[in-house]
Amino acid sequence: MDKYNVLTVDDQVHCTDMLKNLLTQYPFIENIYSYSDPRDALAFIQTSAIDLVFLDIDMPHINGLKLAETIKQQFPDILLIFVTGHSDYALHGYELYPIDFLLKPVSPLRLEKALVQFRNQRSNRTVSQELNFDRTQEQATKKITVRDKSSIHFITINEINFVEKRGRKCIISVKDNKEIECSNTLNELEKMLSKHHFFRPHQSFLIPLSKVAEIKPDEYMRSYLIELENVNAEIRVSKNKYSELRNAINSHL
């Protein structure tokens, strides 16, 4: 059985103690480390092998969201679970792809569910890392065939930025932001591309999960905007679709 090192970061010591008592019941957790100051926690992470971090959000010195962002940038293999007493932080917190968002006081059943997700993601990442080279090589040469009125196009999947439905046509944005117009429907293209890790965040778009650079709330906090790598386009995703997108990205990692 794989064993994991866990870190909790919370300026409320009694909350840390309660969480640690729950975590000690799980035999796959080998070590539990705790810090009340997020600055000390970050210094510890930089010299230690940590698999999972439980993060409070409303903390002095460094906001928990900012700390999570730093961890994701410097240590992308570390997984996160937010633990807070403020449910209104959830919208911002989910931008950082945490495993879960637990409200205080932590329910043992919700914690168990979050830890199941953690172990599943760790297992998926291990398998993905082993297969990553082969998958990358395959994607580099794999093509789809699309049609327009007078010709057939052979498009390398790895070069697709996104697919957009415009009126009755579909536009495929590819390398160097070149656009290819085709008469295939978006549903047809979704069937072709879904097995290659494309996702439909909106009724008019398909995007490759590998090119998602950032997801952020819109200015009205009613939905999210997706930014893609090296693409001058913002694609909207609803709150309902956001959870599905987040799970798809986590599975793809």
TrEMBL record:
GO terms for molecular function: DNA binding; phosphorelay response regulator activity. Residues 221-248 form a coiled coil. PROSITE patterns: HTH_LYTTR, RESPONSE_REGULATORY. Keywords: Coiled coil, Phosphoprotein. The modification 4-aspartylphosphate is found at residue 56. Residues 144-251 form the HTH LytTR-type domain. Pfam families: LytTR, Response_reg. Residues 5-119 form the Response regulatory domain. It comes from the Bacteria. SUPFAM superfamilies: CheY-like (SSF52172). The keyword Phosphoprotein applies. This is Uncharacterized protein. It comes from Priestia veravalensis.
